[in-house]
Design brief:
This protein has 643 residues and is of the alpha+beta class. The chain has 23 helices and 15 strands.
Length: 643
């Protein structure tokens, strides 16, 4: 492809002047490297077409320049259009190259900082972004790990290719919206690959039962049904909490300036390029803009003693640009006026004089009491695929359109959009921790009962524990019996209300103590407060054990998986398979009075050697998650925290 006209001699001009076949060859090369979905867009844009007026060499030169400009704008996306197999191969190659480079640096006697700088040069040469900071030996060990490179490359490839599709106008209402077909395919393959990995990874619990991780994941909030139900429970509870106190509710719709929107809709609903689009912003840039404005708003309201709480949902426009829906409450009319004024101040501080900014960028509705959950229920159902929503419809400039295209549910496109750009879809504001809520559901009744009637008399923890469970007609379950649902409102009241600082809630997470000098796989020290969650710590009283079952890997291979490669240990296919399904009955309790050493169980020997630690047996409430006190006494020993 000729970048400059050959004018230094007449012979060079005759040999190398631009001709029509030069344009044809350049287009053929370009069409081979771009994603298949882009080829239709190239044809519609008329890239490489030559005008009929003027000499052939001039028309060919103009067409070649247009192809060059396209390659300069979208060439990165074309070169990074890799499948997962190519990404894995590239990750292994880069890990090997880093090892070779670092070995040369050590042989040359470079210090630690110079070694890190040399690796940074390699990363910049590759062109990878968003890899995070690399410091010291831990940073070098990360770049020597092929698994680290796989994570970085998958994120980079997905975002670079998707950004090219967005700037090209391929993500819009007509083609399904939210994410390109290539991005949707990439996310679908990832979900399928992860599900297969979970299904073939087996874990055995302390009772001898074997489950695969797919079964365990289906019981957690990663299950869309459970996730959607939990979100609706929190919204309903927050609404009831606000209604009891006569707080004022607002439903907010917050969008970004027009420079973040690559596509707009014409008068008849057809997608058109947005002339105000800056040509480089991605959905992640727009999300960062929204987060920055929200942080300024919260700081402004906090300095003026405005207590704002609720929940917000991040959703994509049809062109993948995010916008927020937020359901929030304030305590009185004075706080309401301050909130509304601050919202207009910050959301219009950036390009606030552009056409439509005052009416389209921010929308505020005052919610009526008792109906707030309905405002945001639709957006939650659209985002998690909840069964409560029959059709996935979206509104674009006042018109409804169906997002379920090509037999693909709309929530799958939303999931692909959020996963590609790393956007957090749901976030609570000014409410107690949902992690404490989930851990309370795993605390046994005998512990919380002892905490309530014992010397501590912690009735607030008891009320919070009751609020986290759904009670049926069970004698003695709660006063009067009857069916009682989980109650987020009661949980908020028991935890101390709304808009408290992190250390002021009634309960927090209790974590396993981290021995001094403990490091992760990359040699970084694990600090205090980063240990595994093992229970709950009330502000007053003893701790509650919430982890009731220990798990160990049982079988790491899939049944019927591909044969092991050369040099890897071969599986004994004649060995009995771990019991699953209805055959996985728990093991019978041991018939011996104790295991190995009584001093180990009672922690007596450890205390004699090292003194009393921070987490001792008497700090936890009596009772065991797996056996009652009577069963432990029958065994002739006392329980210790199992985590």
């Amino acid at each position: 492809m000729a970048r400059k006209l050959p004018t230094h001699s007449l012979d060079a001009w005759k040999r190398n002047k631009p001709q029509a076949w030069h344009v044809t060859r350049a287009l053929q090369v370009l069409r081979k490297v771009v994603p298949p979905q882009w080829r239709t867009a190239l044809d519609k844009a008329g890239l490489g077409q030559m005008d009929n007026d003027g000499p052939e060499w001039l028309n060919a030169h103009d067409a070649l320049q247009a192809v060059e400009r396209f390659d300069a704008d979208f060439g990165q996306a074309s070169r990074w259009d890799l499948n997962d197999g190519q990404i894995c191969t590239m990750a292994k190659t880069l890990a090997y190259e880093v090892g070779t480079l670092d070995a040369c640096a050590l042989r040359e006697g470079l210090n630690l900082q110079e070694r890190v700088d040399s690796i940074y040069m390699l990363i910049r040469a590759v062109g990878v972004r968003e890899h995070g900071p690399l410091a010291g030996e831990a940073g070098i060990k990360r770049t020597l790990d092929a698994a680290w490179w796989r994570r970085v490359l998958r994120r980079h490839v997905a975002r670079v290719v998707e950004a090219g599709a967005i700037r090209l106008g391929l993500v819009n209402r007509r083609d399904g919206g939210y994410v390109s077909n290539k991005g949707l395919q990439r996310r679908t393959e990832q979900v399928t690959r992860n599900a297969a990995t979970l299904k073939r990874t087996l874990y055995r619990n302390e009772a001898g039962q074997v489950f695969n991780l797919g079964e365990l994941a289906a019981l957690s909030h990663s299950n869309p049904v459970i996730r959607g139900g939990e979100l609706m429970t929190r919204i309903r509870g927050a609404e009831e909490y606000a209604d009891r106190r006569q707080h004022i509710g607002l439903f907010l719709t917050l969008t970004t300036p027009s420079r973040f929107h690559p596509v707009k809709l014409g008068r008849h609903g057809q997608p058109l390029p947005n002339k105000r689009y800056d040509g480089r912003s991605t959905p992640r840039d727009a999300q960062n803009w929204l987060c920055g404005m929200w942080a300024k708003l919260r700081s402004h309201l906090g300095r003026r003693d405005v207590h704002l709480y609720g929940i917000r949902v991040a959703e994509p426009h049809h062109d993948a640009t995010p916008h927020w829906h937020a359901m929030v409450w304030v305590e009185d009319e004075v706080q309401l006026q301050k909130t509304v004024a601050a919202l207009h101040r910050y959301w219009l501080s950036d390009d606030g004089d552009e056409p439509g900014a005052g009416t389209n960028r921010i929308n505020i509705k005052r919610m009526t009491g008792g109906g707030a959950a309905g405002y945001v229920a639709k957006y939650i159902a659209k985002s998690v695929g909840h069964a409560a929503l029959a059709d996935h419809l979206d509104v674009v400039q006042g018109e409804l359109f169906d997002v379920e295209t090509c037999d693909m549910p709309g929530h799958r496109r939303v999931d692909a959009w959020a996963a590609t750009w790393g956007i957090r879809q749901f976030q609570a504001i000014g409410m107690p921790s949902v992690s404490v809520w989930r851990e309370l559901r795993r605390v046994s009744k005998d512990q919380i009962e002892d905490l309530r009637v014992g010397r501590d008399g912690d009735t607030a923890a008891w009320r919070a524990w009751l609020a986290c469970h759904r009670w049926g007609k069970e004698p003695g379950a709660i006063e009067g019996g009857g069916v009682i649902r989980a109650d987020w409102c009661r949980y908020m009241e028991s935890m101390g209300g709304h808009c408290r600082k992190r250390g002021q809630w009634h309960m927090g997470l209790a974590r396993r103590p981290v021995p001094a000098g403990t490091t992760n796989a990359y040699g970084e020290e694990i600090k205090e407060g980063q240990g595994r969650v093992v229970g709950l710590e009330p502000r007053h009283g003893r701790w509650l054990v919430s982890r009731r079952m220990a798990w160990r890997p049982a079988v790491q291979e899939a049944l019927g998986a591909a044969p092991a490669a050369a040099g890897e240990p071969q599986l004994d296919m004649a060995a009995p398979e771990p019991a699953q399904g209805t055959d996985r009955a728990p093991l019978a309790p041991a018939w011996t009075r104790f295991n190995n050493c009584t001093a180990r169980l009672t922690n007596t020997l450890h205390r004699q050697l090292f003194g009393r630690g921070r987490h001792e047996k008497e700090d936890w409430t009596p009772g065991s998650p797996t056996r009652s006190d009577a069963e432990w006494r029958a065994l002739g020993t006392t329980p210790t925290p199992f985590f």
